[in-house]
Amino acid sequence: MAGQEQQQPQPRDTEVEEEVPVPPAPAEGQASASTQGVDDLLDEIDGVLESNAEEFVRAFVQKGGQ
Amino acid sequence: MTAAPEPVLGGGLPAGGAMRVMGSETEYGIHAPAAPGANATMMSARVVQAYAQVTRLRAAGGAETRWDYTDEEPLHDARGWTLERGQAHPSQLTDQPPVLDAEAVALAYGHEELELDGEDESGSLLMNMVLGNGARLYVDHAHPEYSSPEVTNPAAAVAWDAAGDLVGLAAVRRLASDTELPAVNLYKNNTDNKSVSYGSHENYLMPRSVPFGDIVRGLTPFFVSRQIICGSGRVGMGQDSSRSGYQISQRADFFEAEVGLETTIRRPIINTRDEPHATADKYRRLHVIIGDANLSQVSNYLKFGTTAMVLSLIEAGLAPRIEVHEPVAALQAISHDTTLTAQVRLLDGRRVTALDLQWMYHEAAAKLAQDTGVSDAVDGDGHTHAVLERWATTLTQLDSDRSAAATSVEWLAKLSILEGYRQRDGLQWNDARLGLVDLQWSDLRPEKGLYYRLLSRNRMQRIVDDADIAAAVTEPPSDTRAYFRGRCVSSFSKDVVGASWDSVIFDVPGYGRLQRVPTREPLRGTKALTGGLFAKHREAGSFLAELLGSAPAPPPA
Questions:
Q1: Which of B3, B61, B124, B311 is packed most tightly, with the most Cβ within 10 A?
Q2: Pairing relation of β-strands B243-247 and B136-140?
Q3: How confident is the model at residue B262, as a pLDDT?
Q4: Distance between CA B292 and CA B299 in Å, rounded?
C-alpha cells in the first residue's frame, strides 16, 4: 500500500478552496440551517449549478436498474 | 479446487439492539454531459477500469480481483422455492458474469482504441473488482455499483458507504483526466425522473429460524414510514414525473407490490431474494430494496440503525402488532405529503401518521433494548443508545422544529434549498432549475454536489469524521470477514485470483491447484483472529500454509 496517500481522492477542503470561496463556518461548528445565510448559500449554488438547466436535466437519461 | 477449513471462530454480537452484520449497495447514476448518448454499460465499465488504475498506482502490483460467482443464487426465494431460469427477467440473472467484448466496445464508442489496461486475459473489460477495503465495485446492468464490506453497526455502515462515494469520486477524477474520451459524472440518486429507477440496497444478516411471514408483518409498516427520516427527496411526482411537486422519497413511486423476488420490475416493499452469502441453514440475508441512497450521514445512520433494531424486535417476537391497509398506496401517500400530516389506515381501524408509526416502533425498540441491556449508556453495546437518542431527536424535530431537522434529514435539507429558490426567484415546481438542484444535490464531486456544499458550510451534521471515511476507502472493517477478504486483496493481490462475499481463491505457486478459502461465517476472519497472520506473512504461500494448517509442496527452485 506504499504511496497510497498520494492517490487518495483529493481532500474536499482543497477542492473547495480552488473552486469556490468558502465563508467562515459557524463559531461552534454546530450544524445550522438558520435562514440567515440562505441567500448567501443560494448565491454560492448559483455559481456551481450546471449551465442550461433545461438541457442538462433532459439529457440525464438512465437505463433501468434494481 | 480444495475446500479449506474455515478461519478461526468468532463471537456473536449483542442481541436486542442496533448491532448486526449489515452492508450497503449503491448503484450510481452515470452521465457524460459531453456524450449524452454514450452506452451506459460501457461508461460503467470505464468507471471500474479507472478505479483499477487508481488502485494500481496506490499499490504496485494491482489490487483488483475477479468476482467468484459460485455462491450467487439470485432466483432463490425466501418463501421456499426457486424461480425457473426461463421464467426470470434477464436482469434477475445476476449469477453470471456480464460479457463486454471488443465488439460491444466498438459499438459503444465507434473505435477500439480503448486502453487495454483494464482488460483481463480473456480480452474483455474489467467489470468487477474486489477492493482492499473488502467492498465490491462492479458493473450492474447499466450502472456502476459499490457494495460495501460487511460491518457490524450503523456508524460503520455510514463510513464504508460514504467510502464508496470517494471511490466513485476517485474514478470520476481519473476519467476527467482522460483527454480521449468524455468525462463521466456519478450521482448518488435513484431516478432519472423520466421513468427509470435504480437501487440502493441494504443487507442485514438474520437467523434463518425467524419465519419470513414475521419479517413481512413486522417490517412493512416500518418501511412504509421510515422515509420521513431517510428519504432523499425528489422533485417530481409519479414514475415519469408527469405531475410537478416535491416528495419525500426518491423510490416510493416505483414500488408496486408488497412482497416479491423482483428488484427491477414490479418492485416489492419486501424483497424475497434469498442468497445468504453465508451458512445457509443458519442465516438469511435480508435484502432491502426500498431505501433511497443517502448522502446525509444522519439519514443513512438512522436508516441502518433503526432497521437493525426493528429486525431485533421481529426476532424477539416483539414488533408492534400493526398492519397498514394497502401498504403500497400508504407508502406513496406518505411520500407525497411533506407536511407529515397524511394519515394512513391500519387494519384495526385507527388512522395514524408516519410519525405515529415511527414512534410506535421507537417505543417498542427502546423497551427491548432496555430489557436486554444493550442500550445502557455505560454498559450497553456502544451503539444502540446513540441510535435511540438520535431517532427520538429526529422524530421530535420533524414534528416541531423542521429547520433543526433540515441539518440531518436529507429530504428536508434538499427542500430547504429548493424553497430558497422558489422564494427568491418565484420558481414553480416544474421549473428546470429545481430539477437541476435535485439532480446536482447528489453529484459526487464536492465542488459541484450541493450536499457537499451544505456539508462544507456545516449545514449538515456528521456522524463520522472525514478522516475515518477516507481511511475506509482503503481499510476493511476490523470485525467481520471483510477484514480477511480486504487484507488478502491488498496483501496478496498477485496470488488472489477471485473473491466473493463468502470465499477468497488463491493461486499460489507450489500448491498445484486453486485454493478456495470459504468465509461463510460473517463474524470470522476478523482482525482479532487473523491480523496476526497477515502481520507475520509477506508471502501468500506461507500465509496459506499456516491458515490451512498444512505445509504446501516446496515451490520449484
A1: B311
A2: unpaired
A3: 84
A4: 10
Q: What is the dihedral of CA B303, B304, B309, B312, to 10 degrees?
A: 130
Grid coordinates belonging to B399: 414534528
pLDDT value, residue B90: 61
**Which residues on A lie below 8 Å from B60 (Cβ)?**
2-3
Task: Give the long-range contacts of residues A30-34, CB within 8 A, separation 24 or more.
Answer: A30/B458, A31/B407, A31/B408, A31/B458, A31/B459, A31/B460, A31/B461, A32/B407, A32/B458, A32/B459, A33/B403, A33/B404, A33/B406, A33/B407, A33/B413, A33/B416, A33/B459, A34/B403
Q: How far apart are CA B49 and CA B43, in angstroms?
A: 10
Q: Which of B76-85, B257-266, B536-545 has the lowest mean pLDDT?
A: B76-85
In B119-233, at which residue ranges do the beta strands (DSSP E only) sit?
128-130, 136-140, 143-147, 185-187, 200-207
**Is the Cβ–Cβ distance between B383 and B18 less than 8 Å?**
yes
**What pLDDT does B353 receive?**
98
Which helix H or strand E contains B49, and what residues bound it?
helix B40-58
Mean pLDDT of B143-171: 98
Give the H/E segment covering residue B222.
Answer: helix B212-225
Confidence category of residue B263, pLDDT binned at 50, 70, 90? confident
B327-335 helix and B212-225 helix, angle to the nearest 10 degrees: 20
| The pLDDT of residue B122 is above 60 | no
Q: Do B163 and B135 meet the contact criterion of CB atoms below 8 Å apart?
A: yes
> A15: nearest CA in chain B?
B447
Q: Burial level of B211, CB count in 10 A (0-12/13-18/19+)?
A: exposed
Q: Is A25 on the interface with B (CB under 8 A)?
A: yes
Q: Using CA atoms of B35, B37, B39, B40 in order, give the dihedral in degrees to the nearest 10.
A: 90
Q: Is B483 helix (H, G, I), strand (E, B) or coil?
A: helix
Residues of A in contact with B406 (CB under 8 A): 33
- CA–CA min distance B3, chain A (Å): 29
Chain B segment 7-46 residues within 8 A of A by beta carbon are 27, 29-31, 33, 36, 40-41
- Chain A residues with CB under 8 Å of B421 CB are 42
Q: At A17, list the grid cell.
A: 478552496
Q: Does the predicted interface ipTM exceed a cut of 0.90?
A: no
| Confidence band of B118 (pLDDT split at 50, 70, 90) | very low
Chain pair A-B, CB pairs under 8 angstroms: 177
**CA B319, CA B213: separation in Å to the nearest integer?**
12
Q: How far, in Å, are B12, B196, B417 from residue B29 at the CA level?
A: 37, 11, 21
The average pLDDT across B298-319 equals 98
Measure the CA–CA gap between B432 and B237, rounded to whole angstroms: 14
Mean pLDDT of A4-26: 42
Residue with cell 494448517: B549
* B499 φ/ψ angles, rounded to the nearest 5 degrees: -155, 160
CB B479 within 8 A of CB B525: no
Cα A41 to chain centroid distance, Å, stands at 11
